[in-house]
Specification:
- The protein has 35 helices and two strands.
- With 630 residues, it is mainly α.
- Among the domains are: 1-109, no CATH class; 519-579, Serine Threonine Protein Phosphatase 5, Tetratricopeptide repeat (Alpha Horseshoe); 588-626, no CATH class.
- It has a two-stranded antiparallel ribbon with strand order 1-2.
- A hairpin with a 2-residue loop joins strand 1 and strand 2 (596-601).
- The longest helix is centred in the last third of the chain and has 17 residues, at 610-626.
Amino acid sequence: MYPFLKQTYGPHSSLSYCSLLLNHCLTKKSLNFVKIVHAHFLKLGLNTYTYLGNRCLDLYSEFGHINDALKVFDDISHKNSTSWNICLKGLLKSGQLGKACNVYDTMPIRDVVTWNSMISGYASSGYFSHALELFVEMQGTGVRPSGFTFSILMSHVSRPSHAKQIHCRMITSGVDLDNVVLGNSLITMYGKLGLVEYSFVVIMTMKQFDVISWNSLIWACHRAGYHGLALEQFYHMRATKLLPDQFTCSVLISVCSNLQDLDKGKQVFAFCFKMGFVYNSIVSSAAIDLFSKCNRLEDSVQLFKEQDQWDSALCNSMISSYARHDLGENALQLFVLTLRKNIGLTEYMVSSLLSSVSTFLPVEVGNQIHCLVPKLGFESDAVVANSLVDMYAKFGFIDDALNIFNEIKIKDLVSWNTIMMGLTYHGRVSLTMDLFRELLTREGMLPDRITLKAVLLACNYGLLVDEGIEILSSMEMEFGVKPGEEHYACVVEMLSKAGKIEEAINIMETMPYRTTSDIWRSILSACASYGDLQIIEAVANKIMEMESHTCLPYMVLAQACEMRGRWETMVRMRKAVENRGTKEFIGHSWIGIKNNVYTFASNQLQHYGGKDLYMLLNLLAWEMETKGYV
């Protein structure tokens, strides 16, 4: 097959010719050819040469055959720093952090490449605190960090305090801060953490900047929710005579999507036509998302159909658009079509479909997608795992959700939020509180608004009054999260359920938000059992002022008067309800049977298999009564 390999070469054959063979391996991207060349080296005794061994070692590492690479490493007679570094990189690339640590410990000399590899390995595996410790240790040994060292740290940093420390260390280490690449990395780092003001400080101190600099700043504003500010930066960018690229346009369209500003989005899209970016898949997928979020799904479908060639980005946007508009069947059909066309499936695509399944499709479809996840190699992806946890929790299989959560190797905050919210809604209050404590102590992560909402909901459902009050009062000071309306609502409802009506009203009157009728409703419901008539009347009047057409306050007042024997007032309240001509709200249920979802209203007597369904429901109700659930 390779006739030029049939010649016999002595041990003093030209190293340059052997190197040419190895270059040919890389060009052909053929693992078999690498093995053939390596076999000839073994035959001729060239496998012990440092240079050739390093090249073979590098090639096996590139192809992901780490065991073959380790054999080559062992054969090298005189290992230099390059040999050790390639071996270390190969182990880290294959995910064998433990073995990489053993190699690192036995290395005779550690240069900046060695330290960069280990810092990157720890950070990529989710051990950022270890990466920082290694970074400090590196400087203690006298090895000066390079710009690449800081780039690694900036791409993985997750805390504002760490970001500022890294930036400070860059200044004190004498790194060239005029380097455009490092400046762009700083802008992106601060933008990822929501520290937009620091991103502006960085770009203002940069002596020169490029399109990527502006893209990073626009993206930073967009990521932090300052969408208007992001558009302003685009105008400033145009004033500098720099031409935007496809990434600029895609971010701008995403900005318009979040603003749900269709007019501005169309202007940006027209600009894309002018620049020739309209058939770029990243720009088109952003436009599909824009039309979908602005309730113009037909335009999204039309734009998708006009594309000459589909790719992962386009299919991602279209599947999520269908899911957003409650068209789970369409999302599933497009997913199947994507499979048939051999378009590379992405984690985001699977995640979008799982979100659609948990709301609109039977659990069997979710199980099938779950079976597909390991085949696609996505089982270790946090986004897909989080979607699986959410799907099983919404279907009521909370134990399955918990098992998947426990199997996630590197859990991000979304993972913790998803399982804690699922456990809370399933009444696993104590387990939710245990996970919250584990998150703070063992993982060392700071909770966000969603985490604290899940915990306060657990306190509400479990009537853990003291814990709930303590968390609400300390969340801004301890976690840096200002209590929102949803947090106050949880605590108010918790106090109301516990019969502490006056405390609940005090929190309502002192919270820095405009009170809503929903929060007053939670107090009113509790007042019917615990409150005196004056409080009930005061709360009912509040709701009447906010919702003049609602009948709830009149109904609660009628019930309270009936309990206290005030018959005239009771009759008057019931008359008020009748005069309002309230319309009965009819509940609907969805049942999945043989991959079909049937919807029926609670006032229907006849529907698919109606008699059998009602018999089954009666049996379930009887079983619940016998077990004391009702």
